[in-house]
Specification:
The protein has 13 helices and 21 strands. Strands 1, 2, 6, 7, 8, 9 and 21 form a 7-stranded mixed β-sheet that branches. A 7-stranded antiparallel β-sheet has the order 16-15-12-13-14-11-17. It is about 35% helix and about 25% strand. By secondary structure, the chain is α+β, with helices and mostly antiparallel strands. The chain is elongated. The protein binds flavin-adenine dinucleotide.
């Protein structure tokens, strides 16, 4: 094997965890090769946070931060004690990309542009002389007798890595590679995903949001899940952090049968009180059409859709012509705006998918495989459930940095 094909560390995958690992190992002096099957590094990273990149969550107390990873917090304490949330802030700030904190402690680059995060990471690896092979898909990983790995590519090239870091995200070849190496891999499953409906009137509300409502998910006439917060209507259904964080439970319900969503648009107002408010509105605007006065209580397009529902049909009626029964039906609708949930948006739209390597097979002090001590497992490759809000990317920064630091240390030892 030619020397130029032998590396201290080969990183498979040029996403956030792979770039962090490669940059860190090279910064400490390792000879590193980074392989990425796409033409460009960090493609997914550039789409994160709706193009703004929710880079981490500014909960600086590690224990409080890790409380968001209910099944994994004990495992994660060690790597997070080596690279914390504060370290992420410092890392990006030192590289000229300060972060700002928004609601729910979500941190974004001050520039509000995910491409700037990609640029910082690309610069980090280039500056430290990581050899980059993009457009190169890894198809297999073979462990050699001396503990090194032969990395095989689709173009039938082979490289030797004294160490290898698998940072290939979920799905695809990563799973096959891991299974062949004897790891237990839970099949990925879309987790944080928007919910779909076939109710056309919901699609027509695309872009409208309700900043304070309660949503219930019903099955067989019983309320199964209840959440209060903000919701976003989309051209396929409903989304927003609250929906995303509930989608896993809704998906489980859908496996058992049909599910109906019901939105209470005025969760802190009793039905009687809401009826009085609507009555006062009608009294004040006796000769006006409902489609012109209901927007006083809600977004115009939402009022229009509700008034045109088949069981309401009040858009073109004047307030003084509305019967008591019709008014009560309208109020009821505002407290119980229901529509069927038909499913979840698929894998490609999942913000996070669960699945990956079983945590008991990972040595979290340095992010190596317990089966193969020269193999690092990073980012989404690990089976860690977490909410949206910057937690996934922080997992990438931490696991990547810890592995990169360790790779150098152990290479010197050899
Ligand atoms: C639309 C969207 C928005 C998101 N927004 C946020 C957010 O704002 N904040 C947040 O914390 N999380 C967010 N996430 C989740 C976050 O993007 C992921 O958790 C994160 O990208 C995982 O990083 P990773 O390095 O583990 O893997 P990935 O980012 O998936 O990168 C893996 C890389 O490996 C490459 N690869 C795969 N197989 C091979 C192979 N065989 N050979 C060579 N290369 C290979 C892939 O092409 C890819 O570039 C979002 C996810 C999505 C889909």
């Amino acid at each position: 094997m030619q020397n130029n094909r032998i590396f201290d560390l080969i990183v498979i995958g040029g996403g956030p965890s792979g770039m962090m690992c490669a940059g860190r190992a090279a910064e400490l002096g390792s000879r590193v090769l980074l392989t990425e099957k796409n033409k460009d590094l960090g493609k997914k990273l550039s789409l994160t946070g709706g193009g703004r990149c929710n880079i981490t969550n500014a909960e600086f107390d590690t224990r409080a931060f890790l409380a968001n990873f209910p099944e994994a917090k004990e495992f994660l304490f060690s790597p997070f004690s080596k690279f914390s949330i504060q370290d992420t802030f410092n890392f990006f700030e030192k590289k000229g990309l300060p972060l700002v904190v928004e609601g729910r402690k979500r941190a974004f680059p001050k520039t509000q542009n995910a491409n700037d995060v990609v640029a910082v990471m690309k610069n980090y690896i280039k500056k430290n002389n990581v050899e980059i092979k993009s457009g190169m898909k890894v198809t297999g990983l073979k462990k050699n007798e001396d503990g090194t790995f032969s990395v095989q590519t689709k173009s039938e090239e082979t490289f030797i890595g004294k160490k290898v870091a698998l940072a290939s995200g979920i799905g695809g070849e990563g799973v096959t590679i891991l299974e062949k190496l004897g790891h237990t891999v839970k099949e990925p499953n879309p987790n944080l995903v928007p919910l779909t409906t076939d109710a056309k009137w919901i699609h027509a509300l695309s872009g409208v949001s309700l900043s304070f409502m309660t949503i219930r998910f019903r099955q067989d006439g019983k309320n199964k899940i209840k959440k209060t917060g903000k919701i976003l209507f989309t051209h396929f259904g409903i989304s927003g952090p609250l929906v995303l964080n509930t989608s896993f439970e809704v998906k489980k319900l859908l496996e058992k049968g049909s599910v109906t969503a019901s939105i209470d648009m005025f969760p802190d107002t009793e039905e009687n009180e809401l009826d009085r408010r609507v009555w006062r509105l009608f009294e004040k605007n006796k000769n006006k059409l409902l489609k012109n006065i209901l927007p006083e209580m809600m977004e115009k397009s939402l009022a229009e859709q509700i008034l045109n529902l088949p069981d309401i049909q009040l858009a073109e009626k004047e307030a003084n012509a509305v019967t008591k029964e019709e008014r009560k039906a309208l109020v009821k609708k505002m407290k119980d705006l229901s529509f069927p949930i038909t499913g979840t948006l698929g894998f490609e739209k999942a913000l996070i998918a669960d699945g990956g390597v079983a945590l008991t097979e990972v040595n979290f002090t340095n992010m190596t495989s317990k089966i193969h001590p020269n193999l690092y497992l990073l980012g989404d490759v690990l089976d860690i459930n977490r909410p949206s809000g910057g937690f996934s990317l922080q997992l990438c920064w931490t696991t990547g940095w810890v592995a990169g630091s360790d790779a150098r240390k152990t290479c010197i030892d050899k």
